[in-house]
Every structure is written in structure tokens, then in C-alpha cells.
Amino acid sequence: MRKTLKEISEISDGEVLGDENTIITNVAGITEAKKGDITFVSNPKYEQYISSTNASAIIIKESQKDKVKIPSIVSKNPYLSYAKIIMHIAKETEKHPAGISCNCSVSKSAKIEGCVAISDFVVVDENAKIDDGTIIYPNCYIGRNVKIGKKCLIYPNVTVRENIVIGNNVIIHSGTVIGSDGFGYVQENGLLKKIPQIGIVEIADDVEIGANVTIDRATTGKTFIGKGTKIDNLVQIAHNVQIGNNSIIVSQAGISGSTKIGNGVTVAGQAGLIGHITVGDGAIIAAQAGVIGDVPAKETVSGYPARPHKHAMKIYALIQKLPELFEEIKKLKK
After folding, report:
1. Is 88 a catalytic residue?
2. What is the domain extent for residue 293?
3. Which is the catalytic residue, given 88, 96, 173, 239?
4. CA angle 261, 266, 269 (to 5 degrees)
């Protein structure tokens, strides 16, 4: 990338402060930036670096104008503006596979519509349908009767098992398995008998799924991931889970069977949710929380078992005092 600060401001929806002809060639964090880079300040704790950064330009808020000594872009949301620049760079540099490789295996009954890229050693099974603009990297398996929408991007070593439905503009990262069997067993004479998992997974438009995620197919019916939801790496989503629109599921979270998660929910890292509960719209499940009951809309919960966050913090504060209280009790006993 080589653009003037004026051109960068048009990409990032900001207003130039200072020399608009400043040349920008890259982006970088505020402490690592060097000449030619543009950086940003969003988190207040990084304001201390505004005057010392080596960047050629910086994206700031209106309230930070007096602290800046280099050319700047004033933005209502510096982080979003910075992200737009990165998106622009990514489009300039990205190069995905094109065409259908002679080293892939596509069933005669599969339907490939429009301009689809299918790379080396991809297997597309019977009656699968892949729509225009979708790109599939090497070593992926697309099962029978799978439907994949337009402009999806499926990275290497992804498994999409039979009867799965994937919408448009879905991104799936390497190592993910969609439609693995749900964990269902029933006891008979002391033995565990497998319950066949005959449902599906349906993934709506604009979903992104990280690396090494597992999304189990439903026992019956469907496991559902709503529009715009983003799932981080190493997440487990069990059978018949329902996740609403624009929710965020962070790395190493686990969601047990038949749990319902609303719209705009955040499930933070390593949180665990038991099955058959409901998490309301806009709720936040803090990192490592153990959720064993329903969570109301817009509630923030933390701890194990998960409680309203303020209540949980009071409990943690009292736990820290336990050694002192124990010593006092011993003295009182004497």
C-alpha cells in the first residue's frame, strides 16, 4: 500500500488534521509503528504514547486533538477506522485459489453453480450443491446433500458432513468439523447405546467460524447458528443448540445440548454452559463462567456457578479474607 493521508481518510471515514499529503505505506500498533505507518488510539491506556510514537500518522478522537504532534485522522471510532484500512490492505493483497482442480473429486450428481473454486484433494459428495463465488481450499470434505451458499470461504482441512446447510458469505477456518455426531447415548443393561444423530446443522449468512471448532448435528431437527454470529477457535457447540444473530462465542467456550442463546450475546473464553438453558438477548457470559441456569436478557454473569457479576465480585472479595477470618475464629475458640 502507498497512499496519501487524504486517500486514507476517505477509506477510513475520518477528517485529516495536518499534512494531507503524508505518505502511508502500512499500519501498525502505536508502540511498534515506524515511519510510513499509520496507527490509532482507542483504549485510553495508550494515550500516553500519542506524543512518542514513531508513526507518520495517527487516528484519534476529537477529544485527543490537543495531544497530537503528527498528521492525524480524526474519527468518531478510531478502531473502526483502523479496521477499515486493514480491510482495504487485505483486499489488495489477498489471493485465493481459482477454478476447479483436476486433483479434486466431485460427484457427478453434485451441482456446482457459477464461478466456484475447488482446490486439490477436495471431495464433494453426492447431490451436494455449491453456489457462485464460493472458494474451497485443499483437503476439505463436502458431504452428500450439503448446500453451500454464495461467496463462502472454506479454508484447508474443513469437514462438512452430510445434509448440512450453509448460507452466503460464510467463512470457515482450518480444522473445523460441522455436523459431527451429537453426544447422545442411552443405558440398556448397564451398557451405553448410541442414539443415532439424524438432524442437521444450519448456518445462516455472514457467520465466521474459527479454526478447530466442532458444531454437532442435531439428534433430530437442527443445530442453528444465526446470521452474523462470530465463533472463535476451539469452541464446542453441542447438538440442537440454537444461537441467535450477531452473537460472539470466544475461544474454548463449550455449549451443551439444546441450549438457546439469544441475539447479541457474548460468551467469553473458557465459559461453559449446561444443556437445556436459555441465555437472553444481549447477555454477557464472563470468561470461565460456569452457567447452570437461565440468564436473563442484558445480564452479565461470572464465576462458578455463574451469578450476576456484581454479586460474584462481592463473593470473591470475601473469599480473599477467609484466612484472616479463620485466624480470628481460632482466637475466639481459645
Report:
1. no
2. 105-312
3. 239
4. 110
